[in-house]
Amino acid sequence: SEMLRVVEVGDSLSYFDPGKKQVGKKGESVGVLAMGIGITSALSAVERELAARTRKKIVLLFANRTKEDEVFLDRIADLEHKHENFSYVRVLSREKQPSADPHIHNGRLDKDFLETTFRSW
Q: At residue 20, what are phi and psi to the nearest 5 degrees?
């Protein structure tokens, strides 16, 4: 993945295996990265975590090229409305016009963006 270009030797990553129904450790925060139709399994993982009620904070970064490529936006917004520990950012790499929507980041995911998004952890 292009996003993994920001990972350096020695960095630590955790991930969900879409085939396993797992829930993380109580109290930890989790960031979920989803690209394109990969949102399907990522959204299932987010919903499992929210149902378990063990996470301090859950942030979903949903990356697509354009707004037309996005799916499940109503479902994602509904989750944020229902769960105060859940938030999301939509990342659009090929949109020409900047958005006033605080949920949208125009551009590519890079180290600075990820550090800013997850700084409070």
A: -110, 140
